[in-house]
Amino acid sequence: MSGYDNIAGFYDRVTGDSLDTEKYILNKVKGYFKIDSRNKPRLLELGCGTGNNLFFLKDKFELTGIDSSVEMLKIARRKLPEADFHRKDFRKFDLKNQFDIILCLYDTINHITLFSDWKKVFRNANLHLKKNGLFIFDINTLHKLEFISSVSPVVNKFENSYLIVNVKKISRNVFNWNLKVFENTGGNNFRLIETDIKESSFEVSKITEELSKHFRIVKTEEESGRRMNPDSERLYFVCRKL
After folding, report:
1. pTM for the whole thing?
2. On the CB side of 8, how many CA atoms lie within 13 Å of its CA?
3. HEC profile for the chain?
4. With the C-alpha atoms ordered 57, 29, 22, 232, is the resulting torsion angle positive or negative?
5. Is 136 a residue whose pLDDT tops 50?
6. Within a 10 A sphere around the Cβ of 73, how many other Cβ atoms?
7. What CATH number was assigned to the domain covering residues 143-200?
8. How far apart are CA 79 and CA 51, in angstroms?
């Protein structure tokens, strides 16, 4: 996932805010934990990136984040000096602590291309959760990755710069995201920053079968709360430690 080092400086500007996601997370968490200034649950985010999600949750949780990108973590630390950040591979990290909630958002787990490594993430999340703790993560579905690859490339404008996303299928479950940022350096002058990032996805039945070894799956749904269906593009799994 080190491909994000190249585009770390543009990440927040391209993705914008994540308020809908934070509202979704808070809505789910409030059903299981009392949250107030004197009782902040301990929250760990896997693949925290620049810390955007944690920033919007900072008043309600005691925060820890891990990521593999040096540059993304530099931004996260500036944004949230009070949080605890670690550069680690979340397939095999050991923080010697347990948490009330573990998050893995914005298709972060899709960046792991082998399902055997997804299994490691699930096991590790279980080990780092307290009894009855919540593990909430989302995925880009195979349907979404197939669709994006069929309409690529896609051009997005942000400020006076451009992002070109070109997704190509390279095997049954793996897709390559070629990202080209054309940064406006003044007038009609642009600087090109390019990186490749691989994503994979797997059948929901395969994911839930493995999750069920470690968690009780409370919900599998879209961010809107709509039930999973064959056309779902982004799915949330809300799981509770057995």
Report:
1. 0.93
2. 20
3. CHHHHCCHHHHHHHHCCCHHHHHHHHHHHCCCCCCECCECCEEEEECCCCCHHHHHHCCCCEEEEEECCHHHHHHHHHHCCCCEEEECCCCCCCCCCCEEEEEECCCHHHHCCCHHHHHHHHHHHHHCEEEEEEEEEEEECHHHHHHHHHHCCEEEEECCEEEEEEEEECCCCEEEEEEEEEEEEECCEEEEEEEEEEEECCCHHHHHHHHCCCEEEEEEECCCCCECCCCCCEEEEEEEEC
4. positive
5. yes
6. 22
7. 2.20.25
8. 7
Dump pLDDT digits (tens) for 71-117. 999 999 999 999 999 999 999 999 999 999 999 999 999 999 999 99
The CA distance from 231 to 242, in Å, is 30
> Domain 2-140+201-241 falls in which CATH fold?
Rossmann fold (3.40.50)
The structural domains of the chain, with segments of one domain joined by +, span 2-140+201-241, 143-200
What is the b/e burial string over 38-47, where b = at least 16 CB atoms within 10 angstroms of the residue's CB?
eebbbbbbbb
pLDDT band per the 50, 70, 90 thresholds, residue 17: low
pLDDT in tens, 154-182: 999 988 999 999 999 999 999 999 999 99
